[in-house]
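Exercise: predict the fold of this chain.
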Amino acid sequence: MIVFDCPECGEEMEVSDRKAGHHVHCVNCGAFIEVRERAPSTKKRKRKRKEKRRPDYLEGWEYAMYGTIFALSPCINAIISMVLHAFWNEQYPMRAYQINQLSWIIFAVQFILGASCCCISAIMRP
């Protein structure tokens, strides 16, 4: 296997040895890259990994923070998630998708709990 970084976006790619000397498309940015026969030295690869931009996923603490905010603000969580989705959609599409999904999940839980309370109170009336 040949492991190398995309010169355009820094995405680490791995291709079979048969692709040496051929061109491949980057899985992240779509750039057309020539695969060299030798992989860059491990020192350069380690250094480049540290410089690589932050992944496009929400981290655990962000899930907890946004989840708490959405749970404590039932009417506002849709607005907050729409604003965050609009800001992140271009640069961080996966993060925008995740914040949207988190908002919908919390909304569904709040709706089910509210509907359950209404049904139980309707049944319990004398």
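Check your answer against the key: The CA atoms of residues 1 and 31 lie 20 Å apart.
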